[in-house]
Amino acid sequence: EDKVVQSPLSLVVHEGDTVTLNCSYEVTNFRSLLWYKQEKKAPTFLFMLTSSGIEKKSGRLSSILDKKELFSILNITATQTGDSAVYLCAVEAVLSFGNEKLTFGTGTRLTIIP
Amino acid sequence: KAGVTQTPRYLIKTRGQQVTLSCSPISGHRSVSWYQQTPGQGLQFLFEYFSETQRNKGNFPGRFSGRQFSNSRSEMNVSTLELGDSALYLCASSLTGYEQYFGPGTRLTVT
């Protein structure tokens, strides 16, 4: 059974701190790993990672994938209160007949204290 | 506790047809949200139902509709299917409306 595990489950830090969120996975026929930020209702897409060792960066957020060790990290530097959210990791796997399956982790709840 | 279930898991339809997808939330969860995922797009929010009422709606055409029943089960309907509607449709249930638990999804292919 495909599995995506995120850690920590929750994290509380002060504004300005740097945080690292982890996502490990066990899937068959891995295709990509995705990070989402979920504040209220709809998760917001952050990154899609398909290749090992290539860092994706967007402002203060960055992410990297290690396909050998089967994990990804999401870094947020100089955190702000607006970064408070649940961060979801999802892994896309290719099933037979070209169909894909998406397995989500349960998320890391990040709280930034002013 | 059983997780979120979605049926069917896979579906193939032709252009112009309509389709109905079903979602059963985790027991006790009253909020059900629907999302569409297409390659490279990430999750796109369709709508959310809470206690049989649509509470939030994303930016999708009126061909996409939904409803929720008194037992919190939800259905999503897409009429006059287009090729671009081919996607993975995810349902998520929530107790609080904040943390969401996603179902396995329904893979819809429109030919």
Secondary structure layout plus pairing:
The complex is a heterodimer of chains A (114) and B (111).
Chain A: E1 3-7, E2 10-14, E3 19-26, E4 30-38, E5 44-49, E6 56-58, E7 61-66, E8 71-76, E9 85-94, E10 100-104, E11 108-113
Parallel strand pairs in A: 2-11
Antiparallel strand pairs in A: 1-3, 3-8, 4-5, 4-9, 6-7, 7-8, 9-10, 9-11
Chain B: E1 5-7, E2 10-13, E3 19-24, E4 31-38, E5 42-50, E6 53-57, E7 64-68, E8 74-78, E9 87-94, E10 101-102, E11 106-110
Parallel strand pairs in B: 2-11
Antiparallel strand pairs in B: 1-3, 3-8, 4-5, 4-9, 5-6, 7-8, 9-10, 9-11
Percentage of residues in DSSP E strands of chain A: over 45%
Tell me the distance between the termini of chain A.
41 Å
Oligomer description? heterodimer
User: Radius of gyration of chain B in whole Å, from Cα?
Assistant: 13 Å
Give a quick account of the main beta sheet of chain A: strands, pairing sense, barrel closure: 6 strands, mixed
Spans of chain B of at least 5 consecutive residues whose pLDDT stays below 50 are: none
Order of helices and strands of chain B: EEEEEEEEEEE
